[in-house]
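Appendix B, Record 12. Input sequence as logged:
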Amino acid sequence: MPTARSTVTTLPDDIADVLTAAELARNRPIDLFRNLRTRTVKGEPLPPVFEPNPSQLLKILNALSRHASKEYLRLMADDERYIAVFRAWLLQMSKNPQTWAKCIAPLFLVLSRTDIAVDVLADLEIGRLARALKNTVVGLNFSVRGEVEDAYREFQDWCKNTLFKRNRRSYVSSDESDKDKPSESMMMSK
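Logged structural output:
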């Protein structure tokens, strides 16, 4: 039985306002993600201010896909708390893929443009979670199967041809060397 939360398709004003092309051009992911990320107050973890349902998440992902610049996505990727939001969405989608099916391909498409540091990609297991979710959708033969496979392929190609080749890190260590470089298989197929 759908809940009242799951039937609401509009976004709260403070979320909708920061998803316009003009606002996303300001390159301030904090305006959106401060509402979507978990928070810690006095050492206690708190849930996000706003947890979108599938229709709302689709609007968020479509806005990011259409209007977020490379700079916006880079700033978003450089804050691990924001990438943790994507991890949480991947986990949520994996638990109930049928409910979130229409959001899976758009999520992969946003990730396929996001310059995530390879250590963050590995630490948060984004590649492994994305692959497992894609395999679930393929195995269950959802109507969005083709879209999901295509979007996942774009994400996989982005990782292989861009992220892994650049080997950009979220931190720089004075003793960093290639032996510390996470392997492609480590990030995509754990």
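Residues 8-188 form one domain.
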